[in-house]
């Protein structure tokens, strides 16, 4: 059967190379990727909604008190799947994609195609306070990566197809094709050229058409703007930008803080139990934290904060507007906590939609405070709810353009374009100047594996240290005599540098040919002088597995050396020469800019 399959594929390859140009084939693949990513997004939503509907109708559980149990049940199911079927540690969806683009040439394990379709609905459907956008993007990326491998697409085009998949998934979920394209550019650091623009556009259109085909006219936000922007409200939008920036910084710091808090719990079972109970308590106190939170946002948009808050232990005081404001502010505070706890406990999901929930609550709180301050001001609560979402997206994701166009598209117009720009830009500027990297990118940046719009940085990130290590250097031992070194190493070497290592291969230093040149012909020293007397420190060291290529390049620049030794666990591996490094850099740069 495999032989027959290979014959069929070879015929397809031959026909394709003969009849379809590379450019046309990329356009065809981008449409296919958009459709498949859109279909994956729709599937994720439907499976999750089915689980939620089943629980709400009382097939399994029916009362708020059992919210304590639901998250533990969902996380347990995810744990069992990961342990016995997936058998690999779960990684953050978008971060793992960014890593595959920078260090794995866009190759993603085919298991990711179906894994997210299983574990994300189990997490969200049983109350996990995370989103489905990240898993949808990860599924689409895995589909596009493996489709690219199937048709022998090069790594650069495969990366473009992964960006197309993300555009298709986002376009399908939000029915916002322009924001989907911008997200791919901002988050995946894609160069926006005509070569990449058309495939992204085709994938985005395919994704939104898939959503229309399966979901009809059903949209996430059934809301039309009725109150336009007024110039007198400009200061309030500026203040909202500052507020969402502070909230974005809090969101990011809380994420890493809770992740670190769970690290001492080595056993996944303990993390599951502690995290599940914590989420259950939060859901009981604040029901809107359940799942993604789109119902909560929609209720705020139509002005029904009672329905948005749901049944809480504070229902007796809900008639007091300041109690409502306090509860909504509680959602702003605890959404980040609930989301991160879900992920730290072993759940699967994304951070994009929780960001929107938190932003909607904060925007609504700001509007309610302004309207009830007694100072005679009046602003649109629904508009502030929308613009609060944009402010959090811009700050948390470092994606201001995505925030602006997403909110503009899901509301069906550009009526709020000016306040969106004001709030999103202020939030982004403050957050970016406070926190260099996002939740997606921090770990990758620290390890030097992050692709950015900086071409020099991107090229260095794509380079591999293994490709520039040279090992054709003659090793010498510190106990060798000068005569032994000249006979066994210098006479047989084409290089002018000699690494000095001990019997355990531990690196001790280097000897340059210039160091021994004046002693080479003094035969009286051959037997009496040891190599150790000529050994000196290298100008610097390259630490394998720890130094990024950016660090390696910087070390050459700072030391002025032409060769630097590569050390792994204290032991000598080889040398990197400046000439070979620059040659490899130039080759990668040409490939990157083609």
TrEMBL record:
> Which residue spans traverse the membrane?
24-44, 64-82, 160-185, 197-215, 235-258, 270-290, 317-337, 344-366, 386-407, 414-431
Q: Pfam families this protein is in? A: CBS, Voltage_CLC
How does the record classify its membrane topology?
A: Multi-pass membrane protein
What are the record keywords, sorted?
Answer: CBS domain, Chloride, Chloride channel, Ion channel, Ion transport, Membrane, Transmembrane, Transmembrane helix, Transport
Signal sequence: where? none
Q: Where in the cell is it found?
A: Membrane
One GO term of the cellular component aspect?
chloride channel complex
Chief localization class?
membrane
Q: Gene3D superfamilies, from UniProt? A: CBS-domain, Clc chloride channel
Q: Which GO terms describe its molecular function?
A: chloride channel activity
InterPro entries, alphabetically? Answer: CBS_dom (IPR000644), CBS_dom_sf (IPR046342), Cl-channel_core (IPR014743), ClC (IPR001807), ClC-type_chloride_channel (IPR050368)
> CBS domain: from which residue to which, for each copy?
469-528
What's the protein called, per UniProt?
A: Chloride channel protein, CIC family
């Amino acid at each position: 059967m495999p032989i027959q399959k290979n014959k069929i594929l070879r015929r397809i390859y031959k026909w394709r190379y003969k009849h379809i140009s590379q450019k046309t084939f990329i356009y065809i693949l981008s449409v296919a990727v958009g459709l498949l990513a859109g279909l994956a997004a729709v599937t994720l939503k439907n499976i999750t909604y089915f689980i939620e509907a089943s629980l709400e109708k009382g097939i399994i559980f029916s009362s708020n008190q059992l919210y304590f149990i639901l998250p533990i049940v969902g996380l347990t199911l995810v744990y069992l799947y990961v342990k016995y079927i997936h058998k690999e540690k779960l990684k953050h969806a978008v971060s793992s994609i960014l890593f595959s683009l920078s260090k794995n040439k866009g190759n993603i394990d085919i298991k990711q195609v179906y894994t997210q379709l299983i574990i994300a609905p189990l997490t969200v459907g049983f109350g996990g306070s995370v989103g489905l956008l990240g898993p949808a993007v990860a599924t689409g990326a895995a589909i596009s990566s493996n489709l690219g491998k199937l048709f022998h697409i090069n790594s650069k085009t495969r990366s473009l197809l992964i960006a197309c998949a993300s555009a298709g998934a986002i376009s399908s979920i939000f029915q916002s094709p322009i924001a989907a394209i911008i997200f791919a550019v901002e988050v995946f650091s894609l160069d926006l050229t005509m070569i990449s623009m058309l495939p992204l556009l085709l994938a985005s259109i395919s994704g939104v058409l898939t959503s229309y085909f399966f979901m009809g006219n059903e949209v996430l936000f059934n809301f039309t703007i009725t109150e336009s922007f007024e110039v007198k409200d400009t200061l309030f939008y500026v203040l909202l930008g500052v507020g969402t920036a502070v909230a974005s910084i809090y969101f990011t710091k809380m994420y890493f803080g809770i992740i670190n808090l769970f690290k001492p719990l080595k056993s996944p079972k303990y993390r599951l139990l502690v995290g599940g109970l914590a989420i259950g308590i939060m859901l009981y106190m604040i029901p809107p934290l359940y799942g993604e939170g789109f119902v909560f946002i929609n209720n705020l948009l139509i002005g029904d904060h009672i329905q948005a808050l749901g049944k809480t232990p504070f229902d007796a005081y809900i008639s007091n507007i300041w109690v409502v404001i306090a509860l909504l502010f509680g959602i702003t505070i605890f959404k980040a906590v609930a989301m991160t706890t879900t992920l730290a406990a072993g759940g699967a999901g994304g951070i994009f939609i929780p960001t929107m929930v938190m932003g909607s609550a904060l925007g609504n709180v700001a509007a309610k405070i302004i309207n009830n301050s007694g100072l005679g001001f009046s602003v649109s609560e629904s508009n502030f709810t929308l613009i609060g979402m944009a402010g959090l997206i811009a700050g948390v994701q470092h994606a201001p353009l995505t925030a602006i166009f997403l909110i503009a598209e899901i509301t069906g117009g550009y009526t709020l374009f000016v306040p969106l720009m004001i709030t999103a830009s202020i939030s982004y500027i403050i957050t970016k100047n406070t926190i260099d990297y996002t939740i997606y990118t921090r770990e990758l940046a620290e390890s030097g594996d992050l692709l950015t719009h900086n071409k020099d940085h991107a090229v260095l990130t794509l380079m591999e240290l293994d490709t520039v290590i040279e090992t054709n250097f003659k090793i010498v031992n510190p106990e060798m005599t000068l005569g032994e070194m000249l006979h066994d190493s210098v006479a047989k070497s084409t290089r002018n540098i000699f690494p000095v290592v001990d019997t355990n291969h531990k690196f001790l230093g280097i000897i340059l040919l210039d160091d021994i040149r004046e002693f080479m012909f003094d035969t009286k020293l051959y037997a009496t002088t040891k190599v150790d007397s000529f050994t000196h420190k290298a100008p610097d060291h390259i630490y394998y597995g720890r130094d990024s290529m950016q660090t390696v390049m910087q070390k050459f620049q700072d030391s002025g050396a032409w060769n630097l030794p590569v050390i792994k666990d204290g032991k000598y591996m080889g040398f990197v020469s400046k000439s070979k490094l620059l040659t490899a850099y130039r080759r990668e740069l040409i490939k990157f800019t083609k």
